[in-house]
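task queued by scheduler; priority normal; single chain, no ligands, no partner chains; default sampling; output format set to structure tokens
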Amino acid sequence: MPARTAAELTKALLALTDLPAGFAIDTDAGDDGSGVKVSSKDPKCARLVALTNADKLPGSKASAGRSYSGGEQGPFVDESLDALGSKAAVGAFQQSFRKAITGCRSMTLTIAGQGRSTINVREVSAPKAGTDPVAVRFSASGGSMDGLEITMSTAGIDDVLLAITVVAGLPEDLEGAMTTAADKAKATLGASRSGT
């Protein structure tokens, strides 16, 4: 199988026509990645901290991403696709991601210019999309972002890892975005088979 390219992955990202009315592509979102950091003194959280802070997914051969916003109050949706080279690599990533989530209870979230909050980490049921889906919810308690919820779900689409992150959204926002994104990625990337 020829290696995937960033251009091919970009074609598989959600377009505005794939999203509910009211969404816009958020062009600023790409610039503020450096302003958001998580940290933890708990060694059990080290892997999750590293994955959350990474600009690039470990082992990614090509990647593409896009951010969407559903208005000033949100929801805000981030999508990324990373070609990991093989289905086995995607499966291994999902396993280590799930382990990283279940081992970690809380972290500290710092957003430049907004302050910091403790975030509780909890594995939640993932939308049934792609292979071996995993989902995690980060809920801020106390501090300047009290009440903020960030939910992230990842799933395999053949040899590509799909990740959707929803900020200030509802469970159905994640469900809808994840299912639509997985269907589009499957159709565009020509994943010949779904399921395991």
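post-processing summary
- The helical segments are 6-12, 46-53, 87-103, 171-189.
- Confidence is low (pLDDT under 50) at residues 192-196.
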